[in-house]
Write a structure and sequence with these properties.
CATH superfamily: Glycosidases
CATH topology: TIM Barrel
Strand content: 5-15%
Shape: globular
Structural class: alpha/beta
Radius of gyration: 26 Å
Helix content: 25-40%
CATH class: Alpha Beta
Number of domains: 1
Number of strands: 11
Length: 469
């Protein structure tokens, strides 16, 4: 019988083997939904640019129970309290950048963060790429740097998996290549989560997730949510990194009172049935987050804030479905907490209002005393943007090659656009070439595995007793 191998040899070999096992496990591990999300979140788009003239403008289909000015801290307190009772975790507020002069979105977002911190609530930014304060790409870069170094460090700023979350509106202003260069300057280590809007799946080469702001055009909410969820999930494999699917729910839509808006339309609320259907479809799509369009976009008729016509109906429905989404048990939500009734406002004054100034985003009336700069013409009346068949385009070498994420034969492409943009089912759009694979195979994985196997064998041979080599 040969001598037993010295203990030091076994110890050394065991250490080497353990290290190699850990390396193999780390290299072969692929992103999964459990990596990306710790608990379900319900968000709501929030607008902080209203004043008392808004409710006299004739551009809103309904009236809030309490007309208000967005800059009033008591109003922000009330909105946060209402959102919390309805199961909403955070507001995503439209933001024009850090300029303070004539920019309520900055000053009111600071108030929102402080109120949220005091109440255990959260807030994030919907970054308005066509802000009237962003004249150039350099302005966008400066605003993103400010956002990440100032607001994102506030204790109430929304974080997911430890990273601050930023939503983007109209990121189509810049190409994917330009966005890659922008992110390389402001967030090279990907220490924040960027959520794009719209149907351009190639944006996921740079952005970390996708949402559709407006789904009112859809005639089948369940099918729409399921398709887009699948497309975002395929992007995980395509780009080798986790991508977040943010499903949208909304109570209805009516932007017909906004002057000069092209393709305006109405989707009736049907006594809450529209909202219920979008919630059920969103939950069934297994999203990472759900976002409500909107808490208070009154000029587009997508608000759930208590109103003269509907009272607290939509806050109550939100509480019901938010609880079901978070518990994962349909029908398990307790009755929603009653929201204290608010006084019904008196009839608005009959005096003629001052000529309104429309915002870049949605025709919001600006305060005469704090006028906003005129918005870029292109955003006052957005046109429907069909989703083209993705064509590979040059991407910086630091990014994976852009590919189609739609399966062969999927001719439905033109979904989702944005505020006021009604997309038709784009049957006229051609499908990707048949047989085109959506998988990206990482060839280096096999090479690494083979090299590690050889290294393991060598480690055991090296760890043998010297005399037996």
């Amino acid at each position: 019988m040969g001598r037993m191998m010295p203990r030091w040899v076994w110890s050394r070999s065991a250490r080497v083997l353990l290290l190699l096992i850990l390396l193999v496990a780390g290299l072969s591990r692929s992103p999964s939904p459990t990596d990306a999300q710790t608990s379900p979140l319900v968000l709501a788009f929030y607008y902080a640019w209203f004043d008392m003239t808004t409710w006299e403008s004739g551009q809103v289909a309904d009236q809030p129970l309490q007309p208000y000015a967005s800059a009033d801290p008591a109003v922000i307190e009330r909105h946060v309290a209402q959102a919390q009772r309805a199961g909403i975790d955070a507001f995503v507020q439209s933001w024009y950048g850090p300029v303070e002069t004539n920019n309520q979105t900055e000053t009111n977002f600071r108030l929102l963060l402080d109120v949220a911190a005091a109440r255990g609530f959260r807030a994030a930014v919907d970054f308005e790429v066509y802000s009237p304060f962003f004249a150039s790409e350099e302005d966008v870069i400066a605003a993103l740097r400010y956002l990440l170094t100032v607001h994102a460090r506030h204790p109430a700023y929304l974080r997911l998996d430890g990273k601050p979350v930023i939503f983007f509106w109209k990121q189509q202003r810049f190409s994917v290549n330009r966005w890659a260069a922008i992110r390389a300057q402001v967030d090279p280590r990907r220490e924040s989560i960027w959520i794009a809007e719209g149907a351009a799946l190639e944006d996921l080469a740079v952005f970390d997730g996708l949402h559709l702001y407006n789904i009112a055009w859809s005639r089948d909410f369940a099918a729409t949510a399921s398709r887009w969820s699948a497309r975002v999930r395929r992007a995980i494999e395509a780009y080798g990194a986790y991508k977040y699917w943010v499903a949208t729910v909304m109570p209805g839509w009516d932007d017909t009172r906004i002057p000069d808006r092209a393709d305006s339309y109405v989707r009736e609320r049907r006594g809450g049935a529209f909202y219920r259907e979008t919630w059920q479809a969103a939950i069934a799509s297994a999203p990472d987050m759900i976002v409500i369009t909107s808490f208070n976009e009154w000029l587009e008729g997508s608000m759930i804030e208590p109103s003269v016509t509907y009272g607290d109906l939509y806050l109550e429905l939100t509480a019901l479905y938010a609880a079901e989404y978070k518990t994962g048990v349909y029908g398990s939500a307790p009755p929603p907490e009653a929201v204290p009734p608010s006084p019904v406002p008196t009839a608005p004054p009959t005096r003629a209002p001052a000529a309104p100034v429309l915002s870049a985003q949605s025709g919001v009336v600006a305060s005469p005393t704090v006028p906003r700069p005129p918005a870029p013409t292109a955003t006052l009346a957005p046109t429907a943007t069909a989703t083209p068949t993705p064509v590979p385009s040059p991407i910086p070498t630091l990014l994976p090659t852009a590919i189609s994420l739609r399966p062969p034969g999927d001719a439905e492409g033109g979904e989702a656009a944005g505020r006021g943009e009604q997309e038709r089912m784009a049957s006229s759009l051609s499908s990707p070439p048949a047989g085109r694979s959506v998988e990206v195979r990482f060839v280096l994985t096999g090479a690494f595995s083979a090299a590690l196997l050889l290294l393991t064998l060598w480690a055991f041979w090296w760890g043998r007793e010297p005399g037996s080599r």
